[in-house]
Amino acid sequence: MPIRPSKKLETFENPYSDRDYTIHIRIPEFTCLCPKTKQPDFATLFLDYVPDKLCIELKSLKSYIWSYRNKGAFHEAVTNKILNDFVHTSAPRFMRLRAEFNVRGGIYTTIVAQHLASDWTPPPLVHLP
Questions:
Q1: What pTM was estimated for this model as a whole?
Q2: Count of CB atoms within 10 A of residue 54's CB?
Q3: Catalytic residues
Q4: Is the pLDDT of residue 21 over 70?
């Protein structure tokens, strides 16, 4: 069945909820419209998160991202909106969304937004040789 743009994000049960591990997702084809000019804005999104009980299902993620294609949004607003939707849906221990927008008028924009659950402490960083 072909997918369609949708704001509905789906999740599945984290198979290793007793362990801290990071999921890295690269989304190289994000597009939305400039709210001023209505021209397309292109970005690569980098999602990093430590799941708790739920993980984001990738097919629904693709459909969710696609739903922004014809929507006008400022870079700052759309990045924070997406992060809020992801956090609301999956309640991760930690989540960071980095949006690297392509050049527009000689200016590159990168927006970084993150969430840290109040009851979670990151494990200490392990340095390897």
A1: 0.93
A2: 16
A3: 34, 41
A4: yes
